[in-house]
Amino acid sequence: EGDTLIALPSSGVHSNGFSLVRHALFDMAGYTVSTRLEALGDRELGDVLLTPTTIYVRALRRLFDARLVKGVAHITGGGFIENIPRMLPTSLAARIDTSSWTVPPIFPVIEKAGSIPHHDMFNVFNMGVGMVLAVDPRDADQALSILAANDEAGFVIGDVVARTDEGVELR
Hints:
Largest sheet: 6 strands, mixed
Shape: globular
C-alpha cells in the first residue's frame, strides 16, 4: 500500500482485442484497412492497427538490476481490469488517474465505431499503457530517470491503495 504506479506507453493497440477491433471498425463502422481518418492524422487505418508492439525488456532490465520494481503488469488482453490486480496482493488495489496520460487516437476511434462503453475499453485494450510498474514512492524519480536514460517515456499514473471493492479504481 502506498506504492507508486508508473506506466510505460504502448505503441498502439499491440495485439490485444483484435476480434473487437475488427467488429467495431470493419463490421459496424464499415471502414477498410485503406480508410483514412482525420482523427488518426489521415493515416490509413491498416497502418495504424499494424504498428509494431513495443518491447520493454531493455528498460525493464535496468530497473530490475537497480532492484526498484516491486510489481509488473503487462497490459495485454484483459486490459487494466484483469492484468494490474495480478501483480498485487488481494488486499490491495490500483488507483489509476486516467487523465495522467494522453490516450492514443486509435482507441477513441474504436470506442466510437463500436459504441463500446468507456469502462469496457479499459477491460479490453491497453488505452496507451503497455506496462505498469509498482515502485516504492521514494524510488519513483530514480525509476523514471532510468527509464528516460533507456529511451522509455515512463509516467506516474496512480498508486496502490487498500482494496475496498474492485482491484482497479479508474478515476
